[in-house]
């Protein structure tokens, strides 16, 4: 029914507006740091259920940036949210461009580790390994006391080193993830990578363990 669609649209737009408010008025709060996903997801829901198309979503993000023309920090966060929205729609090339534009608007913009790790993963998938390494390193440095941030960043860095054929560094990082972050489910794939590393290194007995 149309009234249900209107309720759904309004609830998602209200959620996005709440995160815009948090970014603007409470920039140091954890909730504000989580605003990238908090804005990207409601807009994606509207596109997912065909209440909006991609062009309408792009216009929303452009208008949101215009609402905060006095704050480069907020504009950069909204631009990064647009990149996350594009990632949810599997538009990786456009997403990478949006992420880069965000950091061009405000190079020192404060972003939550999840947003940064997603960006680094996207760069790595696009074989932009030097740029990906910079972002993983930033997460590891900026969130050194947060295991929830370190686990995916270290695992991503391990995969990056594996792609670079830097097997010594990759081995150390995969072992670190498996040892220090045993609870991190994606990190368990590191066992397969470690076996591949030992096989490539001629250590066939270790590879079979």
Straight-line distance between termini: 58 Å
Helix content: over 70%
What are the low-pLDDT stretches, counting only 5+ consecutive residues below 50?
none
Secondary-structure element pattern, one letter each: HHHHHHHHHHHH
What global shape is seen?
elongated
**Radius of gyration of CA atoms, rounded to a whole number:** 20 Å
Q: What fraction strand? A: under 5%
Mean pLDDT: 93
Number of helices: 12
Major pleated sheet: none
Can you give me a brief rundown of this structure?
This protein has 12 helices and no strands.
Structure description:
- It is a single chain.
- Helix content is 77%, strand content 0%.
- By secondary structure, the protein is mainly α.
- The longest helix has 24 residues, at 2-25.
- The protein is elongated and about 65 Å long.
- It has twelve helices and no strands.
- The termini are far apart.
What keywords describe this structure?
209 residues, mainly alpha, 77% helix
Strand and helix map with partners:
Elements: H1 2-25, H2 30-33, H3 35-48, H4 54-67, H5 72-88, H6 92-105, H7 113-125, H8 129-142, H9 147-163, H10 167-180, H11 190-200, H12 204-207
Helix pairs in contact: 1-3, 3-5, 4-5, 5-6, 7-8, 7-9, 8-9, 9-10, 10-11
């Amino acid at each position: 029914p149309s009234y249900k669609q209107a309720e759904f649209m309004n609830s998602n737009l209200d959620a996005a507006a709440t995160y815009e408010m948090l970014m603007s008025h409470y920039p140091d709060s954890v909730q504000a740091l989580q605003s990238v996903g908090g804005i990207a997801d409601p807009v994606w829901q509207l596109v997912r259920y065909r209440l909006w198309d991609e062009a309408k979503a792009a216009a929303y993000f452009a208008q949101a940036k215009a609402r905060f023309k006095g704050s480069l920090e907020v504009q950069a966060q909204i631009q990064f949210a647009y990149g996350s929205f594009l990632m949810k729609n599997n538009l990786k090339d456009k997403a990478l461009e949006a992420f880069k534009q965000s950091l061009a608007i405000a190079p020192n913009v404060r972003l939550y580790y999840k947003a940064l790790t997603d960006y680094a993963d996207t760069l790595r998938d696009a074989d932009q390994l030097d740029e990906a390494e910079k972002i993983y390193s930033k997460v590891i440095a900026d969130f050194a006391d947060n295991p929830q941030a370190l686990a995916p960043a270290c695992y991503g860095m391990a995969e990056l080193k594996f792609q670079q054929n830097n097997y010594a560094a990759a081995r150390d990082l995969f072992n670190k993830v498996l040892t220090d972050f045993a609870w991190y489910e994606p990190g368990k794939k590191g066992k397969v990578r470690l076996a591949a590393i030992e096989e490539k290194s001629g250590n066939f007995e270790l590879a079979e363990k």
